[in-house]
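Lab notes, practical 5.
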Amino acid sequence: MNNADHYRVRVSAAVLRLGDELLVVRESRLAVSVLNLPGGAPQLGETLENAAAREVLEETGYHVNPTEIAFVAERREDRWSEPVLEICFYADLISELRDKPIAHDGVFAAEWLTLDHSEIRKHLPHAELFSARKRGRYIDAASPQTVP
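Output from the prediction step:
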């Protein structure tokens, strides 16, 4: 089996507060700062929901409870040879207080930005789904359109 025969799985979480603030992380990729949803790869034997909650805690210090799937996306990223299959969950914030400092390579900040913030529109084009809490959407990397 070669890399073209499988996907890299990534889970992420859309954590909203006050209706229009989204929890995002700032990551360094090739010395460039980018915004992303908190998330990462599930560990062997870990459920996707547990992986999303763990990744949010590691990258932001917040405890969350993943509730339902916001979207599934297939995309290509230059940093990986395989295509990425991302499963994004809506997640409820359990506590407004951070439990621990950020403990993740590449992530250097976690912050709350409004959904209409220019950086969110630039780095997270599918965040428009979150304002209406749409769910169950499939997003193909070749097209920014969603399929119901």
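Observations recorded by the TA: The helical segments are 48-60, 118-123, 128-131. The chain is about 15% helix and 40% strand.
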